[in-house]
Amino acid sequence: MNMKTKVSIKSTLLLMTMVFPGTALLAQDGESSIPFTISGSVDAYFRSNLNSTNDTENGGDLAPATSFANLPGFSLGMANIVGSIEGEKVGFVTDFVFGPRGDEAVFGSVDPSGDPSNRAIVNQLYTYLNVGEHLTFTLGNFNTFLGYEVISPTGNFNYSTSYMFSYGPFSHTGLKADLSFDNGFSFMAGIFNPTDATDFNPSGSYVGGVQLGYEGGAGGTWVNFLFEDGFYQLDLTTGYDITEKVYLGLNSTTASDSFWGVAGYVQTSLTESFGLGIRGEYFTDKGLGVLTEDESVIDVTISGNYTVGGLTIIPEFRLDAFSEDDVVMTDGLKGETANSLSSFLLAAVYAF
């Protein structure tokens, strides 16, 4: 099962394939021909509160304060189209997103005037150079190396996302070097624009990033560190196949004067086409402002994954229990409140 693998799905010369159907697109890398590949996904969902009204005129439209899967009723996720040429020495990836989930993912894309940019469909855009067998330099915009969950719904077992993922970084624009070793260890160091400032650097300050990882046959462990003047985030991500059918994952993170949390992930394959997964997360607001300061929340999410070809159907039940009372409006007309929010969603994710 997938860990925090960088979301790589494929497309830029897409228009060429439309104009010249049936034409193989090849790039030259030395003496070899490298195909241009296209892949991606489409997702949509239905979401409803179980203990709170969904009537927006009467205190409804409540949702967990996390990213993406938080719209009421029948709702759209995104269309994700990625194109790439991945050669032995050089290559590139372009990753385009369209729809509400995509808008949230690339919220940092702006033009110099501060207005939303027409470039705000670019989730990733980078090129790389392999220097020998173990060293790779990457320049451009790429999804973050921190955390367990990713932007693309095809990379997560649960459809809704965790608090730690939602308030950590989504993307970085900059230069990084990845060094791998034959014994399974890896090291990454990079310098980036301010977090989620994807198009350009608006402030002149920079962020540093470091990752130390180990990956074996059954899984891996990554220690991630992001830092700048007056701020840091330290993150641990790990996951292993315990048996052929059972997988355990763990993510823990702390951000200075902001938040900290821990989440465990258990996933099991019940049949060839159906799996069941549980995420349990504890998250504390230490000045972020999403909750009140020092308020905490426990998120328990149970998700099924039923796969038919490229389509995955995800029924999901989620409970968010808050440490403070009366934070959830259960009935705006009567003024009734609670300290938890339960919700159900049904998502469909098609990957190609």
Gist?
With 352 residues, this protein is mainly β.
What would you say this structure looks like, in words?
It is built from 3 helices and 20 strands. The protein is mainly beta. It has a single domain, classed as Porin (Beta Barrel), CATH 2.40.160.10. The strands form 3 sheets. A 16-stranded antiparallel beta barrel has the order 3-4-5-6-7-8-9-10-11-12-13-14-15-16-17-20. Strands 1-2 form a two-stranded antiparallel sheet. The two termini are 18 Å apart.
Give me the CATH superfamily: Porin
What best-fitting shape do the alpha-carbon axes yield? globular
CATH topology: Porin
Instruction: Enumerate how many helices there are, as a single number.
Output: 3
The CATH first-level class comes to Mainly Beta
Rg calc: 21 Å
Strand content: over 45%
The overall average pLDDT, rounded, is: 87
List keywords for this structure.
5% helix; globular; 352 residues; disordered N terminus; 3 helices; Porin; 20 strands; two-stranded antiparallel sheet
Topology:
Blueprint lengths: L13 H6 L6 E4 L2 E4 L1 E13 L23 E14 L3 E9 L1 H6 L16 E10 L3 E9 L19 H5 L3 E10 L4 E8 L14 E9 L3 E10 L2 E11 L4 E10 L3 E11 L4 E12 L10 E13 L2 E12 L5 E4 L4 E3 L1 E12 L1
Antiparallel strand pairs: 1-2, 3-4, 3-20, 4-5, 5-6, 6-7, 7-8, 8-9, 9-10, 10-11, 11-12, 12-13, 13-14, 14-15, 15-16, 16-17, 17-20, 18-19
